[in-house]
Design a protein that fits this description.
The chain has about 325 residues and is an alpha/beta fold. It has two domains: about 5-170, HUPs (Rossmann fold, 3-Layer(aba) Sandwich), CATH 3.40.50; about 200-320, 3-Layer(aba) Sandwich (Rossmann fold), CATH 3.40.50. It has helices at about 15-25, 40-45, 70-85, 95-110, 215-225, 235-240, 270-275, 295, 305-320; strands spanning about 5-10, 10, 15, 35-40, 55-60, 90, 110-115, 120, 125-135, 140-145, 150-155, 170, 200-205, 230-235, 260-265, 280-285, 300. Strand 16 (about 280-285), helix 8 (about 295) and strand 17 form a beta-alpha-beta unit. About 45% of the residues are buried. The structure holds flavin-adenine dinucleotide.
Length: about 325
């Protein structure tokens, strides 16, 4: 059975959680899993992949490039794929993964499946991937016609492997790539805040919050989870200029699958549900008992958000300590 290649994103010398999930998903399909890491700290990050499910790690330490360059990474992945002939190549469905996967699929002439939430190995060893379509109302199973399936995997859906040994780390030279663009500088928009698509807890607000200054109650609720929660928003409040687009959850925003999702003052329009209905536990707070969000919620509180949320925050602080 041919290997599965997984691109592992790093922050400094740390592999990112969403990539560890992709390695875990690959390891459960059987066969060898090969991780590819790219960047100045690739080797140091590869040394932290013990128990990730990877049998081998290719570390591409490119001293030339300080910033993430999709063309350079794709060139390295294509070179690795040429040697390995993998049956699948996985990325986390993060902004990097969404950038790289279609470029690589095009370069290799492979099929690509985006934002997958389930994987299986068919009888002939091919990898098949399930992904939501029609704003999450239906699912399709994708099987590549050719030998390799390129797929991005939704963060927070797949479990990490968390067992097994250390991968054999090999250095790989950065292949010469005819780059059409060079990233000169990256300017962070938010000061080290957790991204809504990767946070285990998401506190989202909608028009029911009435005005931008009322976000303080949601910030307090998020803070009660001690750095594990990110803020999200409906499109209505992003369009109103109350919140940045980076926080928008839904069809035209980000897709999230956290352990816990709070929908506060959000009606539950189908376009919003498309981005959050695979959350493990959904808590809805809305003053309208008929609001559609209650149909997908595991727990519902009918009441005024500005009264309910502070009481909830106090209770969570007491429970978490
Ligand atoms: C092509 C397209 C793409 C779209 N993409 C997205 C997307 O990505 N994400 C997205 O979110 N939307 C998207 N939308 C918009 C979507 O259809 C809805 O208009 C939007 O989600 C509504 O936002 P909302 O729930 O905040 O506002 P509303 O629908 O106005 O809901 C506000 C809710 O707050 C409740 N409320 C009012 N006061 C209180 C209070 N004091 N306490 C508690 N609850 C209260 C109300 O009962 C109501 O349910 C898209 C629409 C289209 C056409």
């Amino acid at each position: 059975m041919s290997a599965i290649l997984v691109y592992v994103e790093t922050k400094d010398d740390q592999p990112k959680k969403a990539s560890l999930e992709a390695l875990g998903a690959a390891s459960r399909l059987g066969g060898d899993v090969v991780a590819l890491l790219y960047g100045r700290h690739a080797r140091a990050a590869a040394a932290k992949l013990t128990g990730s499910g990877a049998a081998k790690a290719l570390a591409v330490e490119d001293a030339q490039r300080t910033h993430f360059s999709p063309e350079a990474v794709v060139a390295a992945l294509a070179a690795a794929a040429a040697t390995l002939a993998p049956r699948a190549i996985f990325f986390a469905a993060t902004s990097q993964g969404r950038d790289l996967a279609p470029r690589l699929a095009e370069k290799l002439g492979c099929a690509q499946a985006s934002d997958c939430t389930e994987l299986r190995s068919s009888g002939d060893g091919k990898v098949e991937a399930r992904r939501p379509v029609l704003a999450g109302k239906a699912y399709t199973w994708i099987r590549a016609k050719n030998s390799t399936l390129v797929a991005t995997l939704r963060p927070n859906v797949f479990a990490e492997a968390k067992s097994g040994g250390a991968p054999a780390v090999e250095s790989m030279p950065a292949p010469a790539a005819d780059l059409k663009s060079i990233v000169k500088e990256i300017v962070a928009s938010a000061s080290g805040k957790l991204d809504v698509s990767e946070a285990p807890v998401v506190v989202s607000g909608g028009r029911g919050l009435k005005e931008a200054s009322n976000w303080k109650v949601l910030e307090d609720l998020a803070a009660a989870f001690g750095g594990r929660a990110a803020l999200g928003a409906s499109r209505a409040v992003v369009d109103a200029g109350w919140r940045p687009h980076a926080e928008q959850v839904g069809q035209t925003g980000k897709t999230v699958a956290p352990q816990l999702y709070f929908a506060v003052g959000i009606s539950g329009a189908i376009q919003h549900l498309a981005g959050m209905r695979t959350a493990k536990t959904i808590v809805a707070i809305n003053k309208d008992p008929e609001a559609p969000i209650f149909k997908v919620a595991d727990y519902g509180i009918v009441g005024d958000a500005l009264e309910v949320v502070p009481a909830l925050t106090a209770a969570i602080k007491k429970a978490i300590g």
